[in-house]
Amino acid sequence: MESIKIDGSFGEGGGQIIRSAVTLSAITGRPVEIENIRSNRKIPGLRPQHMLGVKILSKICQAKVDGLHVGSTSLKFYPSQGVDMQLREDVGTAGSIPLILQVLIPAASLLKKRLEIAITGGTDVPWSPTADYTKFVLGEAFSRIGIDFSLDIKKRGYYPKGGGLIETKILPCKNAKAISFLERTTKSAKMVCSYHDIQEETVLQEVSDAKKILEDGGFEVEHHVKEDDALDIGCSIMVFSHDDSSVIGSDMIYYKSMSGMGKAVARKFIESNMGTDPSLSDMLVVPLSLIPETSIFRVNQITKHLETNLFVASKITNCKYGIGKLDNGFEVRIVGSSDPGMQ
After folding, report:
1. Most buried residue among 110, 144, 294, 326 by CB atoms closer than 10 A?
2. Is 50 a catalytic residue?
3. What is the pTM for the complete model shown?
């Protein structure tokens, strides 16, 4: 089968293209060649944090991979048949475990395979969804598609030391379904906060600030704060809500200062008042591009990550998509290919 060529400099031009392309390649069985990887970045080419997800995925779908080394600006991924696996892996740095799981969860489930994996690395690090967001927001959204997984945070791993541990069990998808996330109707929200080596009163003040903004916005808030063991100083705060027509989350991690962290998380959550939040919107594209029915979601803004995933998905699956402007945001429609070549 001829490889599908993907320009790795398109859109956000980073690791997102790699993750989405190899995931869809594994599921559909269509080989991909990614060129110009991170060509517009200060340090171009593959970094260690990009490589582990591809490496693990290649084990699951017994793929042949060329160009999988640090600094590589091109990658060739030739998948074969998927297999059930139990694995233990170590990123070796504070590289994001949630970003690795963005590759493994839809791939294993939609290949109808069972994967049990323990990964050591970063659980709550910059430029990545937190472990709690992955568990409570992505987990809920994916379950409505038919992709089920459990996630157990055994130990937190903050930047720069990492050392966190997440154990995940991914189940075979029995029936993938289209979704419709149009508008948040609930006024109930949950807030979770984990921290290490930061004064408790400082953390509680940020949680209190977030709670006040949420309550002033009309939300009833249930919150949970926990000090966790970790190798490094760190904190993550996440607010989320679920209802029949929406799944929305907002998260933030400690970076040099706690000041204003709680307020920022709460305001971002309140602003995401449609069917989903900007971060989740791009994560939905990969599975939805493989479902022949029409999926619809509404979001306040169109991000580079969303544009990038729509581009990559259409190249590999031949899905159709459209973006319509609304008074207060955007509506995205995706119709997956009826013949995506799924194995």
Report:
1. 110
2. no
3. 0.95
